[in-house]
Design goal:
109 residues; mainly alpha; Arc Repressor Mutant, subunit A; two-stranded antiparallel sheet
């Protein structure tokens, strides 16, 4: 999804080329994942010559928000607190990052 969001629209080949610069990945794996994302409604494809060009159906923020909500529900029974505690304890956040988080929490009260 990140590769398609970054480009706006992309073919499987374009996403494959983007991904393989950072890690080893099979073309068929990329094609399968893009087809799964299309079936789930995250991507829409349109024939363009001999290939398909995919585009996101929703903005990144909306999809990420939905995925996080589903994750919190599935893994933490709907409570975000254990996730937040884990992230704060397991990741080396700077004092500035912790202060920024505290300000965000303060705004929600």
């Amino acid at each position: 999804m990140k590769a398609v969001w970054a480009r706006g629209r992309a073919t499987v080949r374009e996403v494959y080329e983007d991904l393989r610069t950072g890690r080893t990945v099979a073309y068929t794996t990329v094609m399968t994942m893009m087809n799964v994302l299309e079936r789930k409604g995250h991507l829409r494809k349109k024939a363009e010559g001999r290939c398909f060009r995919y585009r996101p159906t929703r903005p990144r923020r909306q999809v990420v928000g939905r995925m996080v909500r589903e994750f919190v529900e599935r893994v933490f029974g709907g409570s975000a607190r254990p996730l937040l505690v884990h992230l704060i304890e397991e990741h080396d956040l700077s004092a500035a990052e912790l202060d920024a988080l505290a300000r965000r929490v303060g705004k929600k009260r």
